[in-house]
Design goal:
- It is a single chain.
- The chain is mainly alpha-helical.
- It has a single domain, classed as Rossmann fold (3-Layer(aba) Sandwich), CATH 3.40.50.2300.
- It has 4 helices and 2 strands.
- The chain has helices at about 25-30, 45-50, 55-75, 75-80; strands at about 15-20, 35-40.
- Strand 1 (about 15-20), helix 1 (about 25-30) and strand 2 form a beta-alpha-beta unit.
- Its EC number is 3.1.3.48.
Length: about 80
């Protein structure tokens, strides 16, 4: 089973880069070591986009769209990291 981890659970990890993917995380991200580069990459909240859809297939389109945006970002990750 996968689950989110708290910053305390990752105390021994010294990340070089932290990427936030939602505005809430960007606003509430804990203080990080000064050597850590913090990057905010906003993705829409698929649940929020799908909330008012009456057809399941239409709701799924929102999830798929955000999934594809995240996949495209991850595929560009080497280029993105090279720029920081």
């Amino acid at each position: 089973m996968q689950k989110s981890q708290t910053i305390e659970e990752l105390a021994d990890v010294k990340p070089e880069v932290v990427i936030n993917v939602c505005s809430h995380a960007d606003e509430k991200c804990p203080m990080l070591p000064t050597a850590t580069h913090k990057m905010h990459v906003p993705f829409d909240d698929p649940a929020g986009l799908a909330r008012n859809e009456s057809l399941e297939e239409k709701a799924l389109e929102h999830y798929r769209s955000v999934r594809d945006e995240i996949r495209d970002f991850v595929q560009r990750m080497p280029e993105v990291l090279a720029e920081i």
